[in-house]
């Protein structure tokens, strides 16, 4: 029992520290966050307390007001913190992959299944909606990457629907902050076993690095074959 209490006490400072760090990060992008949260708390509590005086139950409505004020403040803080986080991530390489990792249970994300020299990249997510290819980078360049990857998916798993998304702020693109919502809106057409089977088939492809072609031409001088390689008979 003592160990559990000690662990709980140690966890609380960690949570408080995390909240404080999140608040500091959010305040950099949203300087008025403190005033906004204070306003939400005061207004919510004040309205309920006023209703309590009006119906002659200020204590009950006051207690309820405090609870609801904390809840409303937490909701507003969470949304604005999320918005600030997306604002800092937007335009950063790999931002879409970070969002895909947090879509939810039932999704398997493989980052950078395709990439070009300009660092445009395509990520792959597999779930009950099928395969979703998410591209980030120059919209004109990633279209060819998406087309090639989609063609490969249709050849390997022809019975699984393949969706494609380009992350960006232009026409026909999906904003980074709306990527998770977009993923969850795709219709679910696969069962759990079908998702597992699809992941197994795609896993056999390997990642981008393992699929890179070997350089052609004569072997450079001084290079030796690795041990365990093929032997001449």
Automatic annotation (TrEMBL):
<dbReference type="Pfam" id="PF13829">
    <property type="entry name" value="DUF4191"/>
</dbReference>
<feature type="transmembrane region" description="Helical">
    <location>
        <begin position="33"/>
        <end position="53"/>
    </location>
</feature>
<protein>
    <submittedName>
        <fullName>DUF4191 domain-containing protein</fullName>
    </submittedName>
</protein>
<feature type="region of interest" description="Disordered">
    <location>
        <begin position="210"/>
        <end position="233"/>
    </location>
</feature>
<keyword id="KW-1133">Transmembrane helix</keyword>
<keyword id="KW-0812">Transmembrane</keyword>
<dbReference type="InterPro" id="IPR025445">
    <property type="entry name" value="DUF4191"/>
</dbReference>
<feature type="compositionally biased region" description="Low complexity">
    <location>
        <begin position="219"/>
        <end position="233"/>
    </location>
</feature>
<keyword id="KW-0472">Membrane</keyword>
<feature type="transmembrane region" description="Helical">
    <location>
        <begin position="59"/>
        <end position="78"/>
    </location>
</feature>
């Amino acid at each position: 029992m003592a160990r559990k209490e000690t662990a709980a006490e140690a966890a609380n400072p960690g949570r408080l520290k995390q909240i404080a760090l999140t608040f500091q990060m959010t305040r950099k992008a949203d300087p008025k966050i403190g005033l906004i949260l204070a306003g939400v708390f005061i207004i919510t509590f004040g309205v309920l307390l006023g209703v309590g005086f009006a119906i002659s139950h200020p204590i009950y409505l006051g207690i309820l007001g405090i609870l609801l004020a904390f809840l409303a403040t937490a909701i507003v803080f969470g949304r604005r913190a999320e918005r600030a986080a997306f604002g800092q991530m937007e335009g950063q390489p790999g931002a879409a992959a970070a969002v895909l990792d947090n879509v939810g249970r039932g999704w398997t994300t493989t980052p950078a299944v395709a990439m070009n020299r300009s660092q445009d990249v395509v990520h792959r997510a597999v779930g009950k909606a099928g395969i979703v290819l998410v591209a980030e980078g120059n919209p004109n360049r990633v279209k060819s990457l998406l087309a090639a990857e989609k063609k490969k998916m249709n050849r390997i798993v022809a019975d699984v629907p393949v969706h494609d998304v380009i992350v960006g702020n232009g026409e026909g693109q999906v904003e980074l902050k709306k990527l998770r919502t977009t993923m969850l809106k795709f219709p679910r057409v696969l069962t759990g076993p079908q998702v597992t089977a699809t992941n197994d088939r795609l896993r056999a492809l390997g990642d981008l690095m393992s699929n890179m072609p070997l350089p052609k031409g004569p072997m450079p001088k001084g290079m030796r074959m690795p041990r365990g390689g093929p032997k001449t008979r």
